[in-house]
Amino acid sequence: MARRRMVLRRIDPFSVLKFGAVANLAIAAIGFVALLIVLRAVLGSGIVEEICAIASDVGFLECGVDQGGLTRTLAILAVVWAVVQTALLVLLAFLHNLIADLTGGIAVVMDVETPAGTSRGASGGAAGTADAVPPPVVARPGPAGPNDQTTTVEPVDAIEAVVQPRPTPRPKPEGGGGKLFGDRR
User: Fold this and answer.
1) Nearest alpha carbon to residue 93 among 20, 12, 147, 167
2) CA-CA distances (angstroms) from residue 47 to 60, 66, 73, 89?
3) Which of 80, 79, 90, 81 is nearest to 18 (CA)?
4) pLDDT over 70 for what percent of the chain?
5) Which of 48, 59, 139, 147 has the greatest number of CB atoms lying within 10 Å of its CB?
6) How far apart are CA 103 and CA 32, in angstroms?
7) pLDDT (tens digit per residue) in 49-108
């Protein structure tokens, strides 16, 4: 297993729109149902009648809760919330793309495993040649390590990205290696 440093340079706004719309509608539906349950519990407990009795003692002529109107209002607020949140996510995706063009993106360190049955030099070409293409590797998140390698991930429409590993660097020569003040370790 090797550690790779990958850079997220671009987020597809249309993918964010699709994912955000579905996720925010699901969250809005869950919130709507939860608020309906709380509303039913409050109306069933008699708290509203007690508040209306106090209000009539003070001098109010009418008091009550329109349950149908309140349910419609909650449904409209849930849909508006989902639309606003989805628009905000798409705006943030555009903003990330603009900032990533200036700064280079977000670096992520991942542990990388080679698929079963493949090795680094078994891609059809001779091992160590410049035209040999290494086999693809599957990336997963992991902690940073001292031997991180940088790999650029291009935008994809797949859930799992397949990244080609970089060839391993050649070992440095022993015995001085051309350093001006000797070898410091």
Assistant:
1) 12
2) 17, 15, 21, 39
3) 90
4) 61
5) 139
6) 40
7) 888 888 888 888 888 888 889 999 999 999 999 999 999 999 999 999 999 999 988 888
